[in-house]
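Risk register update: the risk of archive-format incompatibility is retired. Evidence:
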Amino acid sequence: MKLIVGLGNPGSEYERTRHNVGFEVVDRLARRFVDPQRGAAKSRFSGLLLEAEIGAERVLLLRPTTFMNRSGQSVAEALRFHKMDAARDLLVIVDDLALPCGSIRLRPDGGAGGHNGLADIGEKLGSWTWARLRIGIDAAGAVPQEQYVLGRFRPDQLPAIESALDESVAAGTCWAADGLETAMNRFNRRPAASPNDPTPKA
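Archived output:
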């Protein structure tokens, strides 16, 4: 069994905001891989949970409802209940200010990079060795960071982020079916520079 967690904030006021791209990828995975006969998402593990089948793998899709800063509570509950190994079985999907809008990066480990959701997961799990898929949203620039991440994408950013969301679905699918190394080799391509961040970062 695998666990794919998309990070975001619950509530209609946060829909389609930059901080909620993780939710959007999980929603797209659900539309593609969840059998509608299974019914609606269940409220479990301090989040909304759906069960999918990707290839031969049983995959749980989780959207924490704890708000971003307490995402670790939800992730830890799900891993503990199903006796999963975070290093092998967990993929966290998250927005990243350090990447140009529209780029994605898969990594097997790493720190929080200033992201409160990742920080709480690392703290609750007591480990930083778990896969994360980072989706670039551009640097905040002159806009205060909190205001920027809780805002919606500008029209000029929408084509790039839509492409990134689709590519993230493909990357998450590959991770579940073929493993992290294969997914990294296939999807960690360096994109063209964003107009707002001319030097892409790893």
